[in-house]
Amino acid sequence: MTLDIVQMVLVTVLTAATPLILAGIGELVTERAGVLNLGVEGMMVLGAAAGFAVAMQTGSTGLGALGGAGAGVLLAALFGVLTVGLAANQVASGLALTILGLGLSGLVGASYVGLKREPAPHLSLPGLTDLPGIGRLFFGQDAFVYAALALVVGVWWFLGRTRAGLMLRAVGDDHTATHALGVKVRKVRFLAVLFGGACAGLAGAYLSLAYTPFWAPAMTAGRGWIALALVVFASWRPFRVAAGALLFGGATVLQLHAQAAGLGLPGQLLSAMPYLATILALVLLSLGRRRGGSPGPAALGQVFTPSR
Amino acid sequence: MRLDLIPRARRSPWFDALTPVLAFALAVMIGGIAVSALGVAPSDAFLTYFVAPLSEVWSIQEVALKAAPLALIATGLAFCYRAGLWNIGAEGQYVVGGLAGGIVAIAAHGMEGFTLWVLPAMLVAGTLAGLAYAMIPALLKVRLGVSEILTSLMLVYVAQLLLDYMVRGPLRDPKGYNFPQSVSFDPFARLPYLTEGESLHAGVLVAALALALAALVLARTLFGFEVRLVGTSPRAARFAGFSQSRLTLAVFAISGGAAGLAGILEVAGRIGQLQPEISPGYGFTAIIVAFLGRLSPPGILIAAFVIALTTIGGENAQIDLKLPLDLTRAFQGLLLGLVLGADVIARCHVRLVPGGKTALPEAR
After folding, report:
1. ipTM of the complex
2. What is the Cα–Cα distance from A2 to A250, expressed in whole angstroms?
3. What is the pTM assigned to this prediction?
4. Distinct helix (H) and strand (E) counts, chain A
5. From the list B149, B157, B347, which residue is nearest A222 (CB)?
């Protein structure tokens, strides 16, 4: 019995962590290529709106997820043209992307406010899913959760074990040297930006198709920014992003339970917890880094214009 | 096809002034296409957004009332952005400023006798609160190297929740039928109107004064030079012996103080009490204004009016043409993106080389 309660808590932690894992792993790849895209929140919220809209129109959750990822890619492409192609300031362009994404998502989602869908179907394997204590946690999630975990492993393998991944990291650490080696710096960066957009869009689609299966304006509620902080917190390592997201998901669930239990703390304080926790995490991390941790990609945030 | 960017030897002031105009024209064109896709004639929309708000005295005043906080916050932010520091939490500093100034007004509520000090005290409290709130990300950056981008933004959410808590809790009007709002400020705690019966209040003058002061500091003082130098050439600034940490604290103080002042001006001017929402996103919109105005005070002033115009126009368009308010936000985001992209023309010669593959670097 207690095992089932533990499982229930772990399941909610995992679902709360999934959007952060998805968006965080995408941004990790973008940043490893040396591009800081602060527009995660905008791509995510547009992904949520577009994903829900496509799913309502087609009746298919899978197509909805694709639509969300596609919307993220479109916004990311705009960001890529600005920062990689035209060498515009990355911080300001990322902010523009967030504002644009919030506005566009309102337009896309306007006619879907108040509508509900069935949440994305959960895996059901006879025998396995019903295993007491662990069945639902391991064999009863929806496709987004498995996709997120697969992405973490895939990105870890790609960055650390493949030649293309090595090239991407090299671009992020020293674009002048890699350019001199004949690597197409801008192409690599543009693709990395698009990948980040697809992941952020998918994270948004997860919110509107599975986590809370409806669309509400600005429903991402700062998760895109928290995903950005997670990447720093994780020292740009894939598995640490997943671990950080789970920690964070745990904190969110704890906060919800505390709110329900009514500990006498004002609700606003509990709602502020995720943001305060993020700041605290960043502080602790930089205290730790003083004792020799890994810094970020060396060329992060720097624009590159190839010399002729 | 290959895109070549060759940095210009020197920037032309003509291009600097022209590129935002170009970006604006492009944004208006794209906006026109979007509007016609929503079934409204672009000409009607253009009139509603950009012309109608300027056709009557009261709506011009509304534009000025919206432009003032935007220009004030954006000018403060320009100090940060010029120095290459990213305070994106002006919205939070604005909210905290409004809250702190409002607390002074609520404490002085019902006071008799000499009350002339209340309003100045409110403005000082608001400015200092915004300044202090901006010191959190600044100190974390200077002392621990924590990214100011993320901390300043996270503090926006915290500030909004703090205001929400205060207005629903300790500061709620006991006779207010449980509405989440404070008492209405006494007349001595309100900014006076410039002319009787109109909506323009003295806050616009205070903002204009602060703007002029900032322009002077940026253009004519050693400190202003330091800010500009660190932004354009950090290495030269280090050799000149300018302290990066001192500068970080200073520009965050300026931007936070300006945002806090804007917050209390809005609360003591237009709103006249504390409520859960005291900003229609001024702190974020001001980021657009700062870049649209090319981080220079005169440019920011023009940009603030343009953005205020589109905001008022957007509200009118929602009523008259049934165009959603999110269209304005999308337009503003697009405009910022285009301004940043168009900036490349001022910085570089842009060449599209058809059919060319990315050239391998030549040996030097």
Report:
1. 0.85
2. 18
3. 0.87
4. 12, 0
5. B157
